[in-house]
Amino acid sequence: MRFCNLKVFRKVIFIILLISVCATKAQRIRGFGNISFYYENEDFKKELMTDLGGGVEFEFHPLFKPEVSVSYSIMGIKDIKEYDYVQNSRKMIQKDVSSLNFTIGPKIYLWYQDFTSDNAACWYYIIPKINMSRITANQSYNFIDDNNSSKSFNEKSKIADWQHSFCFTIGMEYPLSEDGTSSLAISVNATNINLGKTLNRFPHNEVDYSTIGYGIGLTYYFGF
User: Fold this and answer.
1) 3-state DSSP call for residue 166?
2) Are 53 and 67 in contact (CB under 8 A)?
């Protein structure tokens, strides 16, 4: 556990140093906030997972603007209820999971056109990203024996671990100001964050949970 924490600490220090270097070398720096919606399978309470985040964009060239961001998502999971009419007993499993994501990636524009008041251009871009996520899951297992209450019990457990993953974003960015400091972007995202690596380790688990998958996002950029 200590070795794992040391590795994470080193990576955090590396990211901080990288941000510091980017800040001193960048031609322009913008902040941004974003919201993304990812499709989930039927094992989750809602078929859409909402992810909220923000970060900083460093412009080294009009076609090359690396981004560093942090996002957070939380989702509920459908309760599992089972009844044993022969033994006259029942059980219920309740779970929830959250993810804190640290992301870095080079934003590369595929086509660029200067914005003027007479030409409202949109800019197309891709962002291959590396994620480092802290996934935390909770489970409550309730067993009720209607014949013998002394056999009834409630078992709560928690699992938290770090996971590396990749994300790929394709987007269109629409300038909102003449100097390009403010803009709005719409994107399609693909990620392989695997919630099942954490959720499937719970005792009494009967569902094979998988990766998050695909989603859409909306990002607002603003100048400092």
Assistant:
1) strand
2) no
Strand partners, 183: 175, 221
Sequence letter at residue 130: I
Q: How far apart are the first and last CA of the chain?
A: 40
Neighbours of 2 (CB within 10 A): 6
CB 162 within 8 A of CB 132: yes
16: left (phi over 0), alpha (psi -120 to 50) or beta: alpha
Residue type, 56: V
pLDDT tens across the length of the chain (224 residues):
444 555 655 666 666 666 666 556 667 889 999 999 887 766 666 667 889 999 999 888 888 899 999 999 887 777 778 777 767 778 888 888 889 999 999 999 986 555 443 454 678 999 999 998 999 999 998 888 878 878 888 889 999 989 989 999 999 998 888 777 899 999 999 988 888 888 888 887 777 777 777 899 999 999 87
Residues recorded for the chain:
224
CA distance 2 to 7: 9
Predicted TM-score (pTM) of the model is 0.78
- Number of Cβ within a 10 Å radius of residue 7: 11
